[in-house]
C-alpha cells in the first residue's frame, strides 16, 4: 500500500540552501524562501525537465510536501528517481526512505537498500550507517554482521556518531569483528563526545567495570551523570549504584568534571 511520504518542510529548506549558487535555480529558491511556493515550482520545473538533478529533487520534495502543488507522493517519487538516476546523493537517500515507507512506491526494502548503497558508495555517511543497520538486521539484504560493521566503520570514520556507537557495540559483542573492549571503549568515547546518549551510558559502564579502560568510579559517575542529564532511561540507576562506592572527594571531583564536560560540549571529559 502506498502512503504519503513523511518528509518535513524543514528538510526541503535545507536542500534548497545546498542548491544556492546553482545556475538558474537561485530565483526559485528566493521565491521558496519568501513563501511563494507556486512561483518557486514554476521556476524549478523547467530546470527539472531539462535534466537538472537539483531541480528535480526540489520539485520532488515540493510534491511530497504539497507546496505549490497538490500533495502527490507518486509524482514526488518520479522526480526524485530522475535525480537519483543521475547519482544525486540526497535524492538517492530520500528515494530509499520512500521505498522503506512505501510512500509513492510499493514498499520494498531490497530496493531501499539498493538506493542507500548507491548513496553510500558516494560517501554519504548517513546512507552508510543505514546500510550497516540493514545488514546487521537482515532488512532488504542477507544478514551479514561483517558487511554491516564495514559500512558502520566507513561512516564512523567520517564522524557519524550513531555509527561510532554501533561499531562500539559490535566490538563489545564480537559481532562482525573480533571482540575487542579497548576498541569498543574508543568508539563509545568518540560518539559520547558528540553527545550520543547511549554511548555516554555504555562508556560509564565500561569505566565502572574496568572493561576496555582502567577501572575508574569517578569517570564512571561522570559519564553516567551526563547520560542521565541527556535523558538516558537507565542512567539514574547506574549512577546511584556507582555513588555507593565513591568517597566525598570522588563525588566532588566527578561533579566538577561533569559540569566542565557539559559546558565544553563534551570535550575535555577526563581527569
Major sheet:
none
Sketch the topology as an H/E string, one letter per element. Answer: HHHHHHHHHHHHHHH
* Number of continuous helical runs: 15
Measured between the Cα atoms of the first and last residue, the distance is 55 Å
The CATH homologous superfamily of the domain at 1-122 is termed Tetratricopeptide repeat domain
**Radius of gyration based on Cα positions:** 23 Å
**In terms of structural class, how would the helical and strand content be classed?**
mainly alpha
Low-confidence stretches: 13-21
Approximate strand percentage: under 5%
In CATH, what is the class of the domain at 1-122? Mainly Alpha
Give the % helix. Answer: 55-70%
β-strand number: 0
What overall form do the CA principal axes indicate? elongated
Could you explain the architecture of this structure?
The protein is mostly helical and 271 residues long. The protein has a domain at 1-122: Tetratricopeptide repeat domain (Serine Threonine Protein Phosphatase 5, Tetratricopeptide repeat, Alpha Horseshoe), CATH 1.25.40. The chain is built from 15 helices and no strands. The protein has helices spanning 9-19, 26-34, 37-49, 53-65, 73-84, 89-101, 109-120, 125-137, 145-156, 161-173, 181-192, 197-209, 217-229, 235-243, 248-263. α11 (181-192) crosses α12 and α12 packs antiparallel against α13 (217-229). The longest helix has 16 residues, at 248-263. The relative contact order is 0.06.
Amino acid at each position: 500500500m502506498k502512503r504519503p511520504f513523511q518528509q518535513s518542510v524543514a528538510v526541503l529548506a535545507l536542500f534548497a540552501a545546498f542548491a544556492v549558487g546553482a545556475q538558474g535555480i537561485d530565483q526559485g529558491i528566493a521565491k521558496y524562501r519568501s513563501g511563494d511556493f507556486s512561483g518557486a515550482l514554476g521556476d524549478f520545473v523547467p530546470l527539472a525537465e531539462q535534466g537538472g538533478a537539483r531541480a528535480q529533487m526540489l520539485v520532488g520534495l515540493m510534491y511530497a510536501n504539497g507546496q505549490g502543488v497538490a500533495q502527490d507522493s507518486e509524482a514526488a517519487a518520479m522526480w526524485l528517481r530522475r535525480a537519483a538516476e543521475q547519482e544525486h546523493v540526497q535524492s538517492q537517500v530520500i528515494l530509499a526512505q520512500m521505498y522503506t515507507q512505501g510512500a509513492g512506491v510499493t514498499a520494498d526494502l531490497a530496493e531501499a537498500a539498493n538506493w542507500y548503497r548507491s548513496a553510500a558508495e558516494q560517501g554519504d555517511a548517513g546512507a552508510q550507517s543505514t546500510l550497516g543497520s540493514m545488514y546487521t538486521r537482515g532488512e532488504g539484504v542477507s544478514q551479514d554482521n561483517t558487511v554491516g560493521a564495514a559500512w558502520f566503520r566507513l561512516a564512523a570514520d567520517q564522524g557519524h556518531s550513531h555509527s561510532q556507537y554501533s561499531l562500539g557495540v559490535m566490538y563489545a559483542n564480537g559481532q562482525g569483528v573480533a571482540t575487542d573492549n579497548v576498541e569498543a571503549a574508543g568508539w563509545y568515547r568518540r560518539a559520547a563526545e558528540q553527545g550520543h546518549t547511549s554511548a555516554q551510558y555504555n562508556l560509564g559502564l565500561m569505566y565502572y567495570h574496568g572493561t576496555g579502560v582502567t577501572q575508574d568510579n569517578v569517570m564512571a559517575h561522570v559519564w553516567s551523570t551526563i547520560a542521565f542529564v541527556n535523558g538516558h532511561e537507565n542512567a539514574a540507576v547506574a549512577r546511584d549504584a556507582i555513588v555507593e562506592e565513591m568517597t566525598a572527594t570522588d563525588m566532588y571531583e566527578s561533579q566538577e568534571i561533569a559540569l566542565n564536560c557539559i559546558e565544553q560540549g563534551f570535550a575535555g571529559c577526563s581527569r
